[in-house]
Amino acid sequence: SNLKHLFMCLLAISIYFSAIVHLIPVSTAKNGVSSKSRKRIMPDPVTEPPVTDPVYEALLYCNIPSVAERSMEGHAPHHFKLVSVHVFIRHGDRYPLYVIPKTKRPEIDCTLVANRKPYHPKLEAFISHMSKGSGASFESPLNSLPLYPNHPLCEMGELTQTGVVQHLQNGQLLRDIYLKKHKLLPNDWSADQLYLETTGKSRTLQSGLALLYGFLPDFDWKKIYFRHQPSALFCSGSCYCPVRNQYLEKEQRRQYLLRLKNSQLEKTYGEMAKIVDVPTKQLRAANPIDSMLCHLCHNVSFPCTRNGCVDMEHFKVIKTHQIEDERERREKKLYLGYSLLGAHPILNQTIGRMQRATEGRKEELFALYSAHDVTLSPVLSALGLSEARFPRFAARLIFELWQDREKPNEHSVRILYNGVDVTFHTSFCQDHHKRSPKPMCPFENLVRFVKRDMFVALGGSSTNYDDACHREGF
């Protein structure tokens, strides 16, 4: 019980600090004009950066639902009108995808219980609404998936109640801003004003439905159509890209070499392998961090055997290595090459939707892509958001398209990650305020980036996706 008490204290402290961190807006310019205020509020210290605390980082990743967060979505000078919104989410909290060999699986209940923590006032209504949706239209094979988690002992990779609550919260937050404040959709919205797409996993479909329910409570099932996306990169018909795969192979080689250098990591895997009595190689292949994160996020003690217990020190070593790996990944730029090619199809599709909206078309005003960490991560990297944290459970990345009412032909774009405005940190808009007094990032900057500059950034002579994907001599 002392351990539990300590854990809860740590958790409270970390939630408090994360609340403070989240309250530091990255760009809150008055009417967006002054460029001074776009600089970091806290000056960069001259000393070494503080050592990242692996447990704090892990708790941020868990994203345990707590106080409603302050977010910067929907903030714009008053003469701007919101035209369309494109939301990319990572699914919410899930049961692990891997089991630590020879240990008991963590006992987590994946049924939804309205008065159990984490609680959400719409949870009961969500369950009841989902039970009416079995005849709804989902593109195959989505129509064979359950619409909400429902196993007393979670199945591998299944969304948990926490995951549902995270996305009910996301949906409600977006409802308050985009529907109540900005009237993005009319009250009698029609099916073609939504674009919904998800991968074929129950956790992404269910996360998408939870967000949608928070956004449009008691929506009419007849107006809902979820498309199926077979690729985690959401690359639709443009998935074949040999050069992208070469970047990925080089990136995986970099990861492997970094791991070989880390003797403490090797020792930790060795100790854990002894505890569960399997070869070190087999333990590593079982990706134990995935399961350990689940124990941490759900406050369940790490597994024990008669040879001892997996403990917090083991967890810290593996998590610290993960953080180092992310740091090196940013420096070595191989992942950036993979990301530019991996994210191009979905970004191209998104600007296509936005362009139609700038022409006054009223379809697809709200697009939702329910996806994975391996979807969001390349998009963040491709946009140049190298400082962005790895996508936590229920992470959201949002593209907003705005029209200047005073100059109706001019459109602007804002990009937000977990409620923080990161527009002026992207590679296509970071120099904007040096050259222009305009308070928002011009939409054409994003178009030019996707149509041309993404290929320039790859360093070859390619000017389009097909050429870049089949470039010789990479």
Automatic annotation (TrEMBL):
Top-rank taxon: Eukaryota
One Gene Ontology term from the biological process aspect of the record: chondroitin sulfate proteoglycan biosynthetic process
One MF annotation (Gene Ontology) recorded for this entry: phosphatase activity
GO cellular component: Golgi membrane
Principal location class: Golgi
Catalytic activity: 3-O-[beta-D-GlcA-(1->3)-beta-D-Gal-(1->3)-beta-D-Gal-(1->4)-beta-D-2-O-P-Xyl]-L-seryl-[protein] + H2O = 3-O-(beta-D-GlcA-(1->3)-beta-D-Gal-(1->3)-beta-D-Gal-(1->4)-beta-D-Xyl)-L-seryl-[protein] + phosphate
Compartments reported by the entry: Golgi apparatus membrane
Biological function: Responsible for the 2-O-dephosphorylation of xylose in the glycosaminoglycan-protein linkage region of proteoglycans thereby regulating the amount of mature glycosaminoglycan (GAG) chains. Sulfated glycosaminoglycans (GAGs), including heparan sulfate and chondroitin sulfate, are synthesized on the so-called common GAG-protein linkage region (GlcUAbeta1-3Galbeta1-3Galbeta1-4Xylbeta1-O-Ser) of core proteins, which is formed by the stepwise addition of monosaccharide residues by the respective specific glycosyltransferases.
Protein name, as recorded: 2-phosphoxylose phosphatase 1
Organism: Rhinopithecus bieti
Organism ancestry: Eukaryota, Metazoa, Chordata, Craniata, Vertebrata
Gene giving rise to this polypeptide: PXYLP1
